[in-house]
Structure formats: structure tokens, C-alpha cells
Design brief:
This protein has 596 residues and is an alpha+beta fold. It has three domains: 3-206 and 406-593, no CATH class; 216-301, Alpha-Beta Plaits (2-Layer Sandwich); 309-390, Regulator of K+ conductance, C-terminal domain (Alpha-Beta Plaits, 2-Layer Sandwich). Helix content is 58%, strand content 9%. It is built from 26 helices and ten strands. The strands form two sheets. It has a five-stranded antiparallel sheet, with no helix packed on it. Strands 8-7-9-6-10 form a five-stranded antiparallel sheet. Helix 2 packs parallel to helix 20 (453-472).
């Protein structure tokens, strides 16, 4: 290997470290990969930006729009709510039907927005059926992964590997070429979750929000008297706010209640303030009460219940403007008329410095919101580009039948034309979006907002890895190592090795990046052994999506992590055996369905 090959290896290892540690967002990692490879001359500038014009990248972008159009009809949520009665009568039957339904939807709609829409729906089903949501949310995520593996358009990973194959002069995948193995794995997955997985999932009872987020020690009431220095001052200029960095959630003045008062609200004697501030500042406040004779502050506990405000849990979406920003940077209080009380990041609950905390996808923000502003939050919840979805509110989107029939017909036509090889999937996706815009089902603004640009940049950057490995000969070198070490046991052993390597690597980094890294190696391995590359690419495609063992291996797992109040080990308990079952099933069936 020459120096450029070693530099490429270094860039790949550096990218893996960044993916695993999450020091920067995955789209920025992809850009850094692209820039580094161009700077070192491993790929040309034209090759560096070619990923943006790749058919896979463009197809994925327009599939996001079609997914958004279908979700906006409210049909999918409406259908899922109809399962509530089944859950009450027979939990296992309801679970099987729910997993099957989500898998079917995810076969044709991008699974990330599907899970975003269904998390609050499934939680409401759990509460109304007397079932712990923790028993249902991991199966929701896994079901979307099952279904996304069944068709070419079910997952961005499928389209990515299809695009890499076409770039290498191969035919790529047909619309339903993945279905034979996909349907078997869906069946295996449903049986596993209903028979074994449910027993391994925690059965945590729903908690009061104050207990769930540990907010009792962070909220209190203080009463102002004539002597207080804040009297006659606007809230933004009051000593209490400036010195102790507290949020004033409510002001009670006699019989009047002012929820989430603005910064120019003037404080008066005898006002009772419901406040939120950090633990250390509350201690300081209590110390002032104890130490100062005749202190103007009177402290009392607060039960988190307001007559004109509502507590809501806001789950940050995977394409949120909040991601990698602080609540101060997004002007959270003013824009959303809400005060943050706590942030749940995976297993950690944060109470201090909330406005300066960097937000990540999947984080849950507990906030107190004005009742009259809830409708505005609900409107955001129905939009594709919403920064969060509401967990604590029952938000069933109205079922718009006419719009649903139109969108479903357009998607069906696109799938049929692609399956019959009349139109390439990229042309079909673009045409379908054009029809929806012309019929005013979607506006061009909706189109731009529906695209998950993070995934688009990730795909474009990840595609350069394959080009770099080809330019430096790394794909040939690694393929040679595979053949030397596993070739003695035959092609099935190599296929099995590629699957398990992809599966484990996906648990640590992005599934798309993993597929982009290993797909060229699979192609080169097949060519070196004079075999069909299809079974090897099928193994990479399925393994890159089948990530069940960690909450960080796949976006949908990350989204249900905090929402379901899970622990890291919950995923390991349920996902480890499922990973093994899928690996063994794929190893046995791929050579049968897709001969060498």
C-alpha cells in the first residue's frame, strides 16, 4: 500500500471515532471526510462533490418528500389508533398487528419520520390500554427497521447500496428484489418480539412527570414583600433573575394569574412567583431566607400544577433545528412560550444550565407551556420539519381521506413503474413529487422543508469513501484479506463474515456510512472470486439496517431511547439475540434466494 492508502485508512478510523463519540454531528463528519480526501489529493474535487448528484442521494431526497406527504394525511396515525381495542383484549395479538402494520408502512415510507409520528400515538395506546410504553417503543423502532429492509425505497441504506452498485456498472436492485429475504426476517422478527422480546423488555409503570424528571427540588414559590429590591422592576431587570438566573413560570397577583410572563412584566408587592432555577441557586436562595432577619422572601414547595399552563414532553427529532444548539440559541422561551424544566438525555436527567446545554436528537425536554399556545405546538407537531414532537399530549391528526387517496395513488404508481422497469426509481420519485406540487397537495416550501438534509449530506460524504478506496486500491487489498482468511471455507463464510462485520460496525457508527464503506469491498470480493456480487451486496444492505443491540446504531433506536425511559442495557437484552438470529438466518437464506 502507498502513502495515500494509509492516509485513507487514517481518515476512515478518524471518522469512526467521531461517529462513535458524537463529538460533532454525522453530517459534519461526512463533510470532513469529503474535504480531507480532497485536500490530500486522494479524490479529485469533481469526485468529492459527485455524491450530491448521485442517483441514490437524489432519490432519497425526494422520498423524504413523499413520506412527508403521506404522513400529513393523518391516515397512518388514524389506522394505528384503531389497534387500541385489540391491545386491551389481547396484548400479544395487538403487538403482533402493530409490528406488522409499522413494518408494512416502513416498506414504502422512510422509517425515521414514521417512528417520529408514531411514538406519541403508541404511548397513548399504552396508557389507554394500561400497558407500559416501555413494552411497546423498542418493538416500534425494530418494526420500522424490519419493514424498511423489504423494498428498494424502504430505507436510505437500500437506495445507497443500489446507487453504489450502479456506479460500479452493475444493475443495482429491483424494487422488490429484497422482499424474499425481507419478508422472512419480518416474520422471524415479529415471532421473536411477541414470544421472547416482550418478556425481556422492562415493565416500568408510568411516573408522574415530577418524579420522572426529578423536578421537585428545582421548582418552588416565593412571595415578594415591600422590602424586596425587585419590586417595581421589570422581570428582566430584577435582582432575583439577574443574580440567580431563575425562570419565572407564573405570577399570582391576588385572583389574577399570569403564566410565563414576558420580560417587561413589572413585579409588585405580594406577588407570588413560581420559579425554576438551578439546585445551587435554590440553596443560595434558601440560605438568604435563613440568614437575613425579616427576609422579604417566603418560600414554599410547588406541586407542578398550574391552572393556565400545561406540562409537555418535547422529543427532539432527528432533523431538528435544535440539534447541536442550545435553548438560548433557538430562543426557546420566546418562540415557544415555554419554560424548560428539565432535559432527559438518554439515561441522564439535566436540571442545571438548561439554556446552555447542547441538544441532541432523541432528547426529551420537559417544559411548562401556556395552554393557549398548545395549539401552535400541535400545528408544529403535524409538520415534517417540526423541531420536536409532543409526547405528553394526545395529538391525533385529522384523517384527510381525499388527500390520502391522491398521495397513495401517486406513490403506488411510482412503485409500479419502477417495479416494471418503465421508469428508474429516481425519475419516478421526482415525477411523483412534481405531481403532488401541481395538485397543490404540497407546496415547494413543503418540499424543501421535508428533505432531511443531514442524511443527504451524510450520503454525499459517505459515497466518497468508496471512491477513495477504489482510487487507493484499498478495496482490492481488503477483499484479498477476506479471501485469504475466509476463502478456504467457501463463499458462504465470506458472506457471513461481511454480514457480521457490517452488523457490528453499524452498532457503532452510521448505518449509511457503514454501507458506503463495505459495499465496494463486497463488490471487489465477488469480482476476485468470479462470483455474482448480488448476494454480498444483499448481506451488506440487510446488516447495515439490522441494528438492534444499541440505542445509537440506528436513528429510530435513538429516538425511542429517551422517550421510553430506557436504559442502554434494555437494548442489549432484546437486541443481542435478535442480531444473532438475523445473522444466522441471512447466512443460510441469502445463498438460496440470491445464488452466487
Amino acid at each position: 500500500m502507498d502513502i495515500q492508502a494509509y492516509i485513507t485508512i487514517g481518515i476512515i478510523l478518524g471518522a469512526i471515532v467521531l461517529f462513535v463519540t458524537e463529538l460533532v454531528s454525522i453530517d459534519l463528519v461526512a463533510i470532513l471526510i469529503m474535504v480531507s480526501l480532497m485536500i490530500f489529493g486522494i479524490i479529485s474535487p469533481e469526485e468529492g462533490v459527485a455524491g450530491f448528484s448521485n442517483s441514490a442521494t437524489i432519490t432519497v431526497a425526494f422520498m423524504f418528500v413523499l413520506s412527508a406527504a403521506l404522513l400529513k394525511t393523518g391516515a397512518l396515525q388514524h389506522l394505528t389508533y384503531s389497534l387500541s381495542k385489540t391491545f386491551k383484549k389481547n396484548f400479544k395479538l395487538g403487538m403482533g398487528l402493530m409490528i406488522g402494520l409499522i413494518a408494512l408502512i416502513s416498506a414504502f415510507v422512510n422509517n425515521t419520520p414514521v417512528v417520529a409520528v408514531f411514538i406519541p400515538v403508541v404511548i397513548q395506546i399504552g396508557y389507554s390500554s394500561g400497558i407500559s410504553p416501555a413494552k411497546m417503543l423498542i418493538p416500534l423502532s425494530f418494526a420500522s427497521i424490519f419493514g424498511g429492509s423489504c423494498t428498494l425505497i424502504g430505507s436510505s441504506t437500500n437506495i445507497l447500496v443500489h446507487g453504489i452498485a450502479q456506479r460500479e456498472g452493475l444493475e443495482g436492485f429491483g424494487m422488490f428484489q429484497l422482499a424474499p429475504l425481507g419478508l422472512v426476517l419480518v416474520t422471524v422478527g415479529i415471532i421473536y418480539l411477541v414470544v421472547i422480546g416482550i418478556r425481556l423488555l422492562p415493565n416500568r409503570k408510568p411516573q408522574e412527570l415530577s418524579e420522572k424528571f426529578g423536578t421537585r427540588d428545582y421548582l418552588m414559590e416565593i412571595e415578594l414583600t415591600e422590602e424586596d429590591s425587585s419590586i417595581g422592576k421589570m422581570i428582566m431587570h430584577s435582582d432575583l433573575v439577574q443574580e440567580l438566573s431563575m425562570d419565572i413560570i407564573e405570577v399570582r397577583r391576588g385572583k389574577n394569574i399570569f403564566n410565563l410572563p414576558q420580560g417587561d412584566f413589572v413585579l409588585r408587592p405580594s406577588d407570588v412567583l413560581k420559579i425554576r432555577c438551578d439546585r445551587e441557586n435554590i440553596k443560595l436562595l434558601k440560605d438568604r431566607v435563613k440568614l437575613l432577619t425579616g427576609s422579604p422572601l417566603k418560600i414554599d414547595g410547588d406541586n407542578l400544577k398550574g391552572r393556565n399552563s400545561t406540562l409537555v414532553e418535547l422529543v427532539v427529532t432527528s432533523n431538528s433545528e435544535f440539534e447541536a444548539k442550545t435553548l438560548k440559541e433557538v430562543d426557546f422561551r420566546r418562540r415557544f412560550r415555554s419554560v424548560p424544566l428539565a432535559i432527559r438525555h438518554r439515561e441522564e436527567i439535566l436540571h442545571n444550565n438548561l439554556y446552555d446545554t447542547r441538544i441532541k436528537a432523541g432528547d426529551v425536554i420537559l417544559a411548562e407551556t401556556k395552554n393557549h399556545f398548545l395549539n401552535e405546538l400541535r400545528k408544529m407537531d403535524g409538520q415534517r420539519r417540526n423541531p420536536f414532537f409532543i409526547l405528553s399530549e394526545d395529538l391525533l391528526v385529522d384523517f384527510k381521506k381525499k388527500r390520502f387517496y391522491l398521495v397513495a395513488s401517486v406513490i403506488f404508481a411510482m412503485v409500479a413503474l419502477a417495479a416494471l422497469n418503465i421508469l428508474p426509481i429516481m425519475v419516478g420519485a421526482i415525477s411523483a413529487v412534481a405531481v403532488l406540487v401541481l395538485t397543490k397537495t404540497m407546496s415547494m416550501k413543503n418540499v424543501y422543508e421535508a428533505i432531511n438534509w443531514k442524511i443527504i449530506f451524510l450520503l454525499a460524504g459517505a459515497l466518497t469513501l468508496g471512491t477513495a478506496m477504489k482510487n487507493t486500491g484499498l478495496d482490492v487489498t481488503i477483499a484479498g484479506l477476506l479471501i485469504d482468511n475466509l476463502g478456504v471455507w467457501g463463499p458462504i463464510a465470506i458472506l457471513s463474515g461481511l454480514y457480521i462485520t457490517t452488523s457490528w460496525l453499524t452498532e457503532l457508527m452510521s448505518n449509511n456510512a457503514t454501507a458506503a464503506l463495505l459495499a465496494p469491498i463486497a463488490i471487489q470480493t465477488a469480482e476476485a472470486m468470479n462470483l455474482s456480487p448480488v448476494p454480498f451486496l444483499i448481506a451488506i444492505t440487510f446488516a447495515a439496517s439490522a441494528s438492534f443491540m444499541t440505542p445509537v446504531g440506528y436513528q429510530t433506536n435513538t429516538m425511542v431511547y429517551s422517550a421510553g425511559n430506557y436504559k442502554f442495557l434494555d437494548f442489549v437484552k432484546v437486541g443481542f439475540l435478535l442480531n444473532i438470529i438475523f445473522w444466522l438466518t441471512a447466512t443460510f437464506l441469502i445463498p438460496i434466494f440470491y445464488p452466487f
